[in-house]
Design goal:
Number of helices: 17
Strand order of the largest sheet: 9-10-18-17-14-19
Shape: globular
Distance between the termini: 46 Å
Radius of gyration: 31 Å
Oligomer: single chain
Strand content: 15-25%
Length: about 750
């Protein structure tokens, strides 16, 4: 006997929100992310049989699959409702394949539908349920092509890096391009030679207050500073002093006063990349954290008696499109709250800026689902971070629908009587605040702010009060921040909204890039891996080629090209380069000469790269096997607040071939060390679980009483214990940003979603 219809989503939080909207008419269950994937311990792609993927049920998901199959078998219809993107479409397809092919499955394929919720509101959910569709196999194939390409690169390149550079390394198709951008920027900075130049400013007084400063713009018919072309007229202090003395003797007149009204257009509503950038700038959020919080706001927040409510639209989008209904709701709100003057003229909308690659216009921009739920009204139900992000999205969207701000720009041009020199200054007076009443745009370049100019008339004589020469130096390009790297990837067409956060976090987790004072800096390892890949696989990590591959995946989704054609065209050149690299006997990293001599045989010592990093070695190897550690290892330390138990000095975190550990900062005078404990007890013998490294360089957590106790975990343990078996729990993140807490003990199936798990790792 058939019962209620079944809706399957990925997240328990999303399931709760939809269940609240649709009520008892439907059963809503969660797959808890992906249910099938390529196997971890093998390639999982049959290259000889047209790159056929081998999918397996993800370990630990058998119980969930069983529940979904049983629920589907007795359902009147099944509606698959994972997130509305390629990844979600693939999850829907995998679920469909499993519930159709179960031993007890009696479900007809015609009863399986696909629904997509671009926002989880009652109107949107009920409208979507009225017009269900079928799984879009073109989207599934695009996701499958990406997954296969990434697997081929990861599983084929990694062994090569183990052999040539260091065990435990891995490479990614898109991540390697991101590392290349960071490395190339760092080398631009290292190669940069600053140029000295000088500016000359003067303080003038007119017939009315206030006094004002103006900068020397032209001298004897030549422009003083042209930053775009890096042309500078005054290059040393002597010239600056000479010109300053000369211009003190001139009489000055206000040659022209130019006034222009300029509009400041409101910003576009957020897309994935701009949300990540702005959250990073304002709150210091990483892209990964931003997406985790946005996912929570999208899937639903418990608002007391109202239950679970989705507060924002889908957060993976590269379109600034806004529905007509949302525009009208915004106009009504602006009219009521701010007045008619803050409404733009109808049809006065800004065009979406051009960007590399194809814009996926299936989703709207990121906006609040309910304008009648301003941030303050729901603040009591949100965490601090959720409130910050929701406020940002709410204000940005509303500001994007408001009238432009208007400012009067006044430019003074000041010359001497003979017009040998020309000073200029521009001031701004805000005449109408428009969208700025709600949303302030933060400057990225640190401008000097507004200048207030007096009400003077053309032809007035001005009195020169002071002349100030000032030294400057040209600056190298800035290091990337997480936000600016996301912006660069988007501009270059590398990656897509769903991948930016993963790219940024992965290159740091692999220790190819580290964050220093908020900036991304390539590590020595990152530079070595990048240089080797650039030399051996120039096309693979070419920015333009990677962007072209993204376009090809878009074409697969659009039905313009087959997924197999894309994979074949990629694998041929890649496999050719891979074979050449494997057959080559050349070292990946050449020895570097030094001025040291071997104290055993007298030959020159070289700086050599080994599996554990740089070291000094005798150039006479293998006849002489003398080696020495690098002396600059002392710099690779992290300060801590811990005191040495033996001498009281500060303890620092060092790294050895076996992992990180606490060491006394007074080494070698004091050789005290302590394991880097997690604070979690070993469930076997009560020892401390400490961070270690495997022979291949992979981090794991093991008992401090090793080797007598060999208990180990491949993920960092939490302070919490499993409520069912008392084992330490682990945190796991799915590909769509959900966090889950699970028990690693064999036979224990404890696994729950935790939205705030990211803060506990």
């Amino acid at each position: 006997m058939k019962t209620k219809s079944l809706i399957i989503v990925e997240s328990p939080a999303k399931a709760r929100t939809i269940n609240k909207i649709l009520g008892k008419e439907y059963t809503v269950k969660a797959s808890v992310g992906h249910v099938r994937d390529l196997p971890e311990k093998e390639l999982g792609v049959d290259i000889e049989r047209d790159f056929r993927p081998k999918y397996i049920i993800i370990p630990g998901k058998q119980k969930i699959i069983k529940e979904l199959r049983e629920a589907a078998a007795s359902a009147e219809a099944v509606y698959l409702a994972p997130d509305p993107d390629r990844e979600g479409e693939a999850i829907a397809w995998h679920i469909a394949e499993l519930i159709k092919n179960g031993k007890k499955a009696t479900l007809n394929e015609d009863k399986i539908y696909r629904v997509t919720f671009h926002e989880i509101t009652e109107r949107a959910v009920r409208e979507a349920m009225k017009t269900p569709g079928r799984i879009d196999m073109k989207k599934v194939e695009a996701q499958q092509a990406r997954r296969i390409l990434d697997r081929l690169v990861g599983y084929k390149l990694s062994p090569l890096l183990w052999k040539k550079i260091k065990g435990g390394l891995s490479a990614g198709r898109v991540q390697s391009v991101a590392v290349r951008l960071v490395v190339e920027r760092e080398r631009q900075i290292e190669a940069f030679v600053p140029q000295e130049y000088w500016s000359v400013s003067a303080l003038f007084e007119g017939s009315v207050a206030p006094t004002f400063k103006a900068r020397l713009h032209r001298y004897q018919g030549k422009t003083v500073i042209n930053r775009d072309k890096e042309e500078f007229l005054i290059r040393d202090e002597e010239s600056a002093r000479r010109i300053s003395e000369e211009i003190r003797g001139y009489e000055y007149v206000l040659q022209s006063v130019t006034k222009k009204m300029r509009k400041k257009n409101p910003p576009q509503p957020f897309i994935t990349s701009t949300l990540q950038q702005e959250a990073s700038r304002r709150f210091g959020f990483s892209p990964k954290k931003t997406m985790m919080i946005a996912q929570q706001l999208y899937e639903g927040i418990e608002l007391g008696e109202e239950g679970s409510v989705g507060l924002i639209t889908y957060m993976r989008t590269d379109s600034t499109r806004v529905s007509e209904e949302a525009q009208e709701a915004a106009r009504d709100f602006i009219l009521r709250q701010f007045g008619r003057q803050y409404l733009p003229k109808r049809g006065e909308t800004r065009k979406q800026p051009k960007k590399a690659g194809k814009i996926q216009d299936a989703h709207e921009a990121i906006r609040p689902t309910y304008l009648n739920r301003p941030p303050e009204s729901v603040r009591a139900y949100l965490t601090k971070d959720q409130y910050h992000l929701y406020s940002l999205i709410w204000q940005r969207f509303l500001a994007s629908q408001m009238a432009p701000a208007e400012a009067e720009h006044t430019t003074f041009v000041i010359t001497d009587r003979e017009q040998k020199v020309e000073f200029r200054v521009t001031g701004e007076v805000l005449k109408f605040d428009g969208f700025l009443r709600l949303y302030q745009i933060q400057s990225e370049d640190g401008d000097e702010g507004e200048t207030t100019l007096p009400a003077l008339k053309e032809g007035e004589e001005l009195k020169l009060l002071e002349v100030e020469p000032r030294q400057h130096f040209t600056q190298p390009p800035p290091r990337y921040t997480e936000a600016s790297l996301v912006k660069a990837l988007e501009e270059k067409g590398v990656g897509r909204p769903s991948t930016y956060a993963t790219i940024i976090s992965t290159i740091q987790e692999r220790r190819y890039v580290k964050k220093s004072q908020g900036k991304l800096v390539p590590t020595e390892l990152g530079k070595l891996v990048n240089d080797y890949l650039v030399e051996r696989f120039p096309e693979l990590i070419d920015v333009a080629f990677t962007a072209k591959m993204e376009d090809a995946l878009d074409q697969v989704e659009g039905g313009e090209v087959g997924w197999l054609e894309v994979v074949r065209s990629f694998y041929g050149p890649f496999n050719r380069d891979l074979k050449r690299a494997l057959e080559s006997s050349e070292k990946a990293v050449a020895d570097q000469p030094t001025e040291m001599t071997c104290d055993l045989c007298g030959r020159a010592m070289v700086k050599r790269w080994g599996r554990h990093g740089w070291f000094y070695a005798c150039s006479g190897f293998p006849e002489c096997k003398n080696t020495k550690p690098l002396e600059d290892k002392k710099n690779d330390v992290q300060p801590t607040d811990l005191k040495c138990p033996e001498c009281g000095s500060e303890m620092v975190i060092r790294e050895s071939r076996y992992g990180r550990f606490y060491a006394c900062s007074s080494y070698p005078k004091c050789k005290a060390t302590l394991p880097l404990s997690t604070g979690v007890k070993c469930p076997i013998d009560g020892g401390e679980l400490v961070e270690r490294k495997s022979k291949r360089g992979k981090t794991y957590w093991g008992c401090s009483n090793w080797p007598s106790c060999r208990f180990m975990l491949w993920a960092k343990p939490l302070m919490e214990k499993c409520p069912e078996c008392d084992f330490p729990l682990l945190v796991e993140e799915s590909r769509n940003g959900h966090f889950y807490i699970l028990c690693p003990r064999k036979g224990c199936n404890y696994r729950v979603e935790r939205e705030e798990a990211g803060s506990k790792t």
